[in-house]
């Protein structure tokens, strides 16, 4: 049996050895990626190093990074992203726990209803909030909607499924035997939740939180549509510099900073999801 297993694992390696020279097949997609994504990014970086007077250097970077406008936008971007992520983790985990462990009619329908939000563009959430809470809306709340709190509420509503969906998948893999043993030993439901259920779902919750923060940091439609007073995020600042004032070098600097933040969060998300998959394989 051991010989058969070794032969089975060695066979794909032999097949790969017999098929040399296939690396050129990767050339077309690599060229497409470089043309559509790499080249524009290089242009943005080069534009960020060239001032309006044509001088090449770091003067634009120093002006932007040293300005109070940039620091304020960066702080508000991070604060809104952290707040939206925290709200989505709390709400998404709660909804996932209810759907996964509380039997009630319509649980599957509720899960699918929440999932439909994933198919909507973000500005539709802002539009719906305007119809409900706007000055001329159903409730006529008005003021709070055009504040950071209104943006935060809209982002939590829109991005909660991005945490809820992986949490549901993780809760579905929790062994019922573990929960039954914990209950038989006298553990109360809250202790079972803290010691058995949540630790199993922690990698999925962390990856969902990273993805949510990545998306919230780059959110543009909700912030633009609500038009909250004195709320300028980095994407909004790029829009203002590039489209409104036509200051392309400064817009490119802010865009590069935003890309760096996004890549760092995406790398964290990939590491977490890789660890989650590896744990699932080990358990199998």
UniProtKB/TrEMBL annotation:
InterPro entries: MetI-like, MetI-like_sf. Pfam families: BPD_transp_1. It is found in: Cell inner membrane; Cell membrane. Keywords: Cell inner membrane, Cell membrane, Membrane, Transmembrane, Transmembrane helix, Transport. PROSITE patterns: ABC_TM1 (PS50928). Residues 74-269 form the ABC transmembrane type-1 domain. It comes from the Bacteria. It is a multi-pass membrane protein. Gene3D superfamilies: MetI-like. Its main location: membrane. The chain crosses the membrane at residues 25-46, 78-102, 122-146, 201-228, 248-269. Belongs to the binding-protein-dependent transport system permease family. This is 2-aminoethylphosphonate ABC transporter permease subunit.
